[in-house]
Amino acid sequence: MNSFFSFSQENDLIVSDTIPTVSEVVNPLAPSTAAFYSAILPGLGQAYNKKYWKIPIVYGLLGTSTGFYIHNNSQYNRYRDAFKSMQSGKPHEFDGLNGNVLLTDDALERAQKRFKEDRDLSLFITIGLYALQIVEASVDAHLKQLNTDDNLVFRPQLLIDPVTNQVTAGISLSYNFQ
Length: 178
Hints:
178 residues, alpha+beta, two-stranded antiparallel sheet, two-stranded antiparallel ribbon, 4 helices, 50% helix, elongated
């Protein structure tokens, strides 16, 4: 027979027949394992946590930001090559017909600067999203270990104020000791 001992304020011994137990075995290394897997291959930590629906989101975000990086880098290289060609007096892709110049030196410099800034921002966003999916996998594994039993109840409610007869929002948080 299992017994659970506790003391009241008067220091009287109270004996109960049950010991509160956790029904599921908790793996304390699960958060670090999920983070490690996500660091090795994006989305693998989400698969480890059995949250398969998050994997397309991870790859969609990382793929989109990588696509922006590739596009901005390509445009930056185009305008840089044209600027170098214009400086050396050679023809480039932004030369107009009959020798007319479509873009000036200043316009090519501004375009280079803009695409370089956009490229760098895309790189930082990609790195941030990569780190975020690692953190998300670790936090999700931590939350799996959270004890969510029936003793803790969170209940948002709409109440009618008896004085003003208006509807007010309220939150009820209760914990039942057994």
